[in-house]
Here is the input.
Amino acid sequence: MPRTEFIATGFHVPERVVTNDDLAQLMDTSDDWITQRSGIKTRHWVSDGETGVTLAREASCRALANARMEPSDLDCIVYCTCTPDHFEPGNGVFLERELGLTDIPAIDVRNQCSGFIYGLSVADAWIRTGQYQRVLLVGAEVHSRGLDKTKRGRDTAVLFGDGAGAAILGPTDDPRRGVLSTHLFADGRHAEKLWVDAPGLAHDPYVSEQLLHEGKHRAVMEGKEVFKFASILMPQSVAVALRANGLTPADITLLVPHQANLRIIEMVQKVTGLRDDQVYVNIQKYGNTTAASIPIALHEAVCAGRLARGDVLIFTAFGSGFTWASAAIRW
Ligand code: ACO
Here is the structure.
């Protein structure tokens, strides 16, 4: 059975940069508070005319160009997002349309911060079994339009940013390379600890003035609980990935964690026992871009020459659900 390799990557963020000081003009917050608690200095927000799908299209076109491929070379799209442009259909078909394609499958993966690794797991299974050969895997989010930019929502509003990352995946016959394993986890007992309640068909009517008035359409989070579980479960997922492949922390060339919060990443690094140069961090520039954060960080790491053929790359993520996941890749 072939393994899945990353043929090329790409990413795109909106041009508009929003600093912590900009946020302090909108709500009762400060650069000091945001920097100390999260490490974030700036994030990118969409402007008029931009959507998750337009960001995903740009990231995908860059990945395709880096792969020297055309959209017509693709035979499947896996689109990971928790901030879809519309209630239905999913963003995958809109991206397919933007790429000028009409006859390949497009699946949406709704696993929030773990979305990219869940999507990778799906794509990897299809590639290894030969169902699809060239898969476009995208993580893209537009958080900015959904944030509560008042004091009520400031604990979450300062953390999230918009952006998209993409990877082109395909089979390799080289047994020493490619995706070694993916491990996926979920525990729905914590579903309401980080969620957007409405609009949703659990409500009748599923959208109403009252729901909007109560802010049920905003992401709300029990920040301390999220922090506590992420700090335990992300390192555990890394340990599972290492154990499954007979690796140790010393074997890791690069850990690309979901960029949730610098303090969480530091905790993962400490518990796993990694040096600074083994962990890729870019949250200071982009904030938390959920399903887009790993592919954006991966593309930057590749461009910065942080990965060479044969290196061990580990992904780990944790987020709403709770869901968490890891992947081990030999580059
Ligand atoms: N600016 C200024 N003050 C704020 C802000 C803000 N943006 N947000 C909250 N505060 C205030 C609170 O109102 C509170 O004030 P009070 O003491 O007068 O009541 C004070 O700061 C402390 O609030 P806490 O919620 O206790 O702050 P905490 O130290 O827990 O930090 C934070 C909050 C940063 C959200 C933290 O809990 C955290 O990092 N959680 C992890 C959340 C995360 O990373 N989520 C990302 C999504 S999930 C994922 O990707 C894994």
